Amino acid sequence: MKRIAALLAFVLAFGGAIYAAGALSINGAGATFPYPIYSKWFDEYHKKDANIQINYQSIGSGGGIKQVTEGTVDFGASDGPMNEEQLKAFQDKHGFGILHFPTVLGAVVPTYNIPGVEASLNFTPEALAGIYLGKITKWNDPAITGPNKGVKLPGSDIVVVHRADGSGTTYCFTDYLSKVSEEWKTKVGKGTSVNWPVGLGGKGNEGVTGTVKNTPNSIGYVELIYAEANKIPYGSMKNAAGVFVKASLAAVSAAAAGASKEMPDDFRVSITNAPGKATYPISTFTWLLVPEKISDTAKRDAIKSFVKWAITDGQGYAEGLAYAKLPKEVVAKEMKAISKIQ
Amino acid sequence: MATTTTTVPSAGPVAGSRSFLSRLRSGDEVARLITFLFAASVVLITVWLVVELWRESALPRHKFGFAFLVTQVWDPIFDKFGALTFIYGTVVTSAVALLIAIPLGIGAAIFLAELAPARVSDTLEFFIDLLAAVPSVIYGLLGVFIIIPLMRDYIQPALKDALGFLPLFQGPAYGVGFLTAGIVLAIMVIPYIISVSREVLLSVPRDQREAALALGATRWESTWQVVVPFARTGIMGSIFLALARALGETMAVTMVVGNTPTISASLFSPGYSIAAVIANEFTEATGDLYLQSLIELGLVLFLITFILNGLARLLIVVTAQRGSGMGNA
């Protein structure tokens, strides 16, 4: 009995010591898409300032918004900006607002598997919307063959593949389709999950990729970083300026720069179909969601200095992990916005 | 369940505190109380589960009412939710699975219990138990990498050629769909049927077999007409265990079913199941109505399981009255 008591005392004392040394622990939750770079950031930041330990649960954007609204985490993260209803819910619950901070950028690319076609295909917005609406059903439809002169496309049925799980990737993709197709906007709309007019659902980027690889004459959409990491071939998209652009980190950053002139003060902006000749049109920011008021001063200072670091020095880690960096204009604007956290 | 034992603690102190204390000291009373609490916790958890699912799904229950069960649309953007396509997918995939798994499983169990030498039977049983313990995601991978291509390139075209006049086998062959999900589920539940049925068959008294043989029955006649009917209740139990697993299976189904909410007579058509849609959409479900509709789907799945289990009990009671002696369900 005595031995057990001694052991217990030791464990408590030791645990307490660790806890005391760990000092400030900050909790966040949300999007899965930026998880690789966020975990890298939190790790590096902890090395820089050992007093701050940031924990992040990648439970999905919806969960991130919910948790930060409930107040169970110190900050949230999302691939889509919060909508008016969600902002109001936060305001009503806490009596103050919530701020959006873009951290890095990602893009969504169309991938396909057509036996006998090796060339990289060009897609117009009309063709992509038509395919996903179920109106274009054959690969040799003029809407697809038009911008792909010299490529022999078969007359087989197109098998459409989309994400089955709710995701920021789907949000970005449907946000784009809603901008380029009036019919998509009214019939389907944008969101992390939608009521797809046609197609098979795959779970996760890997599920979509697997289905596309396995199914002849299929088309799907995946995140750029996933396509890059797994060497998946993907097509080019015609942007708002009428140029066919293949997704690249530079083309994604260009989309952000194109949009930054009209960047609203709350950063809640969609950069799909952004202007500019070099921009890739299916691009998106991913955001950190930070409450306007944080009563714990130590926590507030830590979060502020972390966000500052992430959008400046932290950007150095982005391209190594295949995320596009924030353009300078956006960083400058965000630096000002950080002071709004009180 | 074991609620009748509630009289025990109250009877003790009044009847004589000394004897209660001594029984307490000897441990009997303690053991009884503790095990009673454990037994009661099962009931509590079940009730709690239903209450939570019911409470958390208030919004869609009020907004859609019973229409939720018969509506096909599932549209998170325009806030229209109906469970019919998912109920259909869940029931169809499980039915296909059982249609395949029951004959195969019971046949294998009869061989292992009655016809195979003990050593072969024990060795095979080891592998069957191993199969039953394989995580479902592994079966999903088996489906994605082996069964889907096989289905798309060989089995579905062959079925179309041979039986294409039936609405069951029409439409494009994607490889994924109700039939594929049913086959993967069948592979998953066969070990349960074999394992439990074999145990039940083995526990049929020797006298029964010997009596049949003495009356001049062949070995197969004794097995089929005496041993199997004797073990009927237990075999039924194994089937319902398999059904329960098939209804609730999430990972393996979502990997092969196509994840498209459809109701179609064709087994080649992609579909969706309740468990799969909950797992896929729950994390990113924003908006209370959406989230609560997913929870109501959970309630529906619970009800389906509950009703089918009730029917199973009923079936066992009915068949038991017709002369089967085993109570192994």
What does this structure look like?
The complex is a heterodimer of chains A (342) and B (329). Chain A has 342 residues and is an alpha/beta fold. Chain A is built from 13 helices and eleven strands. Chain A has helices at residues 2-22, 35-48, 61-70, 84-94, 125-133, 142-145, 168-180, 182-187, 204-214, 224-229, 249-260, 297-311, 328-338, and strands at 24-30, 52-57, 75-78, 98-113, 122-123, 159-163, 200-202, 218-223, 236-238, 244-245, 283-291. In chain A, the strands form two sheets. Chain A has an eight-stranded mixed beta sheet with strand order 2-1-3-11-4-8-6-7. A three-stranded mixed beta sheet of chain A has the order 5-9-10. In chain A, a hairpin with a 5-residue loop joins strand 9 and strand 10. The mean pLDDT of chain A is 87. Chain B is mainly α. Chain B has 15 helices and two strands. Chain B has helices spanning 7-15, 17-26, 28-56, 58-64, 67-70, 84-115, 118-132, 136-163, 178-202, 206-214, 219-230, 232-248, 251-256, 274-281, 288-321; strands at residues 74-75, 80-81. Chain B has a two-stranded antiparallel ribbon. In chain B, a hairpin with a 4-residue loop joins strand 1 (74-75) and strand 2 (80-81). The radius of gyration of chain B is 24 Å and the shape is flat. Mean pLDDT of chain B is 86; it is low at 1-14 and 324-329. The interface between A and B is medium-sized, with 35 and 31 residues.
